[in-house]
Write a structure and sequence with these properties.
heterodimer; A: mainly beta; globular; B: mainly beta; seven-stranded mixed sheet; four-stranded antiparallel sheet
Amino acid sequence: GQQVMQIPQYQHVQEGEDFTTYCNSSTTLSNIQWYKQRPGGHPVFLIQLVKSGEVKKQKRLTFQFGEAKKNSSLHITATQTTDVGTYFCAGLWGTYKYIFGTGTRLKVLA
Amino acid sequence: DAGVTQSPTHLIKTRGQQVTLRCSPISGHKSVSWYQQVLGQGPQFIFQYYEKEERGRGNFPDRFSARQFPNYSSELNVNALLLGDSALYLCASSGRKDTIYFGEGSWLTVV
């Protein structure tokens, strides 16, 4: 079946350090979305990538979609304590089914 | 505008019972999806409905069923509850651009 893996599973960083999470799919994706979930909360949409090789930036966050549309990454520059949470990628398989990754839990130490 | 609303927010059920969870999508959104999120894992796709028709179903047993009403709200039903059904059940609505907006979820505990 379709699988989306994320690495690392956990990441602890000092405030001000950079952070990257990687997302890999076993199948080609129509698009990929990224979400942030705070402890006890629900996933909140961050961004959607559609095109092969696409790169998008949101302030300190940089998102990339691989050329083969099977992998993606999220990079945060100079992390802040407000970045704490679990980051999920979700790949669109077909036309309606989003397959969520396993998530990367980020902890930022002040 | 209100976001996706779900009810109830928390509930406790006994094994073998049945549960109904409710969801109202964002105004104007015709698509509703249901996801199950077990603690420590990513959301797992259960169903998607669009214009009251089921568009897709994930790998869940027939104990899980759903429907969408003419006003695009939706219900998720789970019969014969098992301990393993304890999870956060998320409803999401989407409009034209495939962006998914999640509700705050319904926390189900089966004892």
